[in-house]
Amino acid sequence: MDELGERKIKILDAIIRTYLETGEPVGSRTISKYTDLNLSSATIRNEMSNLEELGYIVQPHTSAGRIPSDKGYRFYVDHLLQNKDKEISDMKDFVIEHTERMENVLKQVARMLAQSTNYATMITSPKYSANKVKFIQLSQLDDNQLLAVIVMEANVVKNKMIPLEKPLDNETLLRLNVLLNSTLNGMSIPEINLATISKMKEQAGSYSDIVGVVLDAVAETISQEELEIYTSGATNIFKYPELSDSQKASELIYTLEEKQQLATLVSDSLSDESNTGIQVYIGNESPIQTMKDCSVVTATYELGEGVKGTVGIIGPKRMDYEKVMDSLKELTNQLDGIFKKPS
Amino acid sequence: MDELGERKIKILDAIIRTYLETGEPVGSRTISKYTDLNLSSATIRNEMSNLEELGYIVQPHTSAGRIPSDKGYRFYVDHLLQNKDKEISDMKDFVIEHTERMENVLKQVARMLAQSTNYATMITSPKYSANKVKFIQLSQLDDNQLLAVIVMEANVVKNKMIPLEKPLDNETLLRLNVLLNSTLNGMSIPEINLATISKMKEQAGSYSDIVGVVLDAVAETISQEELEIYTSGATNIFKYPELSDSQKASELIYTLEEKQQLATLVSDSLSDESNTGIQVYIGNESPIQTMKDCSVVTATYELGEGVKGTVGIIGPKRMDYEKVMDSLKELTNQLDGIFKKPS
DNA sequence: TATTAGCACTCCAATCAAATGAGTGCTAAC
DNA sequence: GTTAGCACTCATTTGATTGGAGTGCTAATA
Q1: What is the tens place of the pLDDT at every residue in B70-82?
Q2: CATH code of the domain containing A43
Q3: Which positions of chain D lie under 7 Å from any protein Cβ?
Q4: Residues 6+ apart with CB under 8 A from B10
Q5: What whole-number distance in Å separates Cα of residue B73 and Cα of residue B81?
Q6: Same-domain status, B118 and B148
Q7: Which residue from A9, A66, B99, B149 could staple onto A57, CB 3.0 to 4.6 Å apart?
């Protein structure tokens, strides 16, 4: 709200709102008519000229209307978009079916969000770094394979097949199971480091050779954290002419399909924590090059105890920030704790 | 090779081959020059006129060259594309990294295939209907949860969380495990029907109430066959102008993203088995409406014992059928048996 | 009788000019 | 400080023109 002056702000606000609706450059006459400022188009023109000099708006070409610059959008998001904390009553409720496989829940969430917003969406699996081991079991599958089943605190189950030279006898298997459970139980992933492992190898005593193989496999499985990213609604971008020419559409959809690049967004959004938990990247603010003509809004959802994931919406710069941010708030609220009670 | 006559066939062949390369309607003059027929353009014109009457080629508009009709492509694929069984030496080898998670292998295959062909690709997880149960284990996870781990013949592991009212004592658990393994071991999915289950409930005797819950959960888990479909290279369609206008591209990419519709292709391709295992759908021959401007080539891969999956390539009608079919053959060969030796 | 040369005709695609109109910037008056 | 008025700019649309590729048909040819 700095040195802009109230009138300029009102005009900027009007310009941006109008542009968000129409997607067309907006001219002085429109503003003069559709605001309660009672100023002639000429005056508006002067102010617009100023606003342009200050970098808030931009002319696509001489003698066209103005459109917001990245700086303009930024100002709008930071200052003009008052979060009026409106009642969520009229918000479409996110009916999340209670499937047990988290994967399916996430896919579903992405799809619903895409449908209700008409933008492209992404959601990551939660990062379980703070998650603890709850239960481990080794079973002899056949003569040369061992199956390790590991259950983490939030009922995340991991499986690992371990090849063996020769079968283990029952007693060894039992001991191993006891050893694994008693040592690793309640530990979180960062705590399971080399020191822990070598200590266990010591305790294993005479078996230490075979035990080593097993331990390494188990440790690897536990600590390997696959960050899955699910996207949906990629084709929604065709609804916005400014994104739907072959070139841009292709690049955008490619990044959504390939997903790796999206990971940068995630780490960004998880670390830099504003108080609301919602982050807005406008145009070049996004770390992803192909999204320079887009805006990305991300939010963090939390299932308690540092178990966090990211959900994001990708749309044109003139996206409906208000609706999008509300949707994300609502969604993260609902998502929070949905996995707490299993099934 | 019916009543077409050798010369007509040669001309048709030339037209299609030229069109496959250029993507432009091909005129009589081009054919007259680039074939060894030594016929003037006028003669070619007459023949083309005939071919058009017979429905093999089509004029986009008067006074343009001809392009193949669906019927023309069909003839080409059925009769002109002699599978010369060329040495696969010059084929780029599919280097499939040996990750243990099948999911990742499939994703990788789809991606590589898309990259090497420049078309969109899909691949399904194998259908395990004939697969047998190898190992089952129930574990008491905590006071009100049981974990069932089921391993199938091809080392496919399934997990299921079973909610309990009150914990089971050790003996019951042991008995259950024995019962499950002794009864279900070696059974394939279709064999596990209601009769089997109720018989087991009988055998369970006094526990039958609690056993029922567990059995149902296990049976459900085993029989629930999730047909996963992975796609890749959707944005490759932008490389073909005839597919890359907003409308078509959007619809196509949407079907690739949503995937459900692709399932119809799969069942089709698994059932109707030609001797080569390769199926070609040209334009409207495809069961999927949005692909009427595309051709789809599918192949079946088999991991032995009726464990089958489908892999497919989606491209413009003027795709390089020869290369595509070769690639698929090569791929299915490599894929066959890759999961036989675990890890 | 089959093939070919020649020519009129069609139609797409590219090019260009003029007309349109939304919007600006500037100046002079209020 | 605000406004009316006017000249100017420039993307977009429209229509007319042209060029070229290709066909279909007819008449000549082998």
Answers
A1: 999 999 999 998 7
A2: 1.10.10.10
A3: 2-5, 8-11, 20-26
A4: B35, B37
A5: 10
A6: no
A7: A66
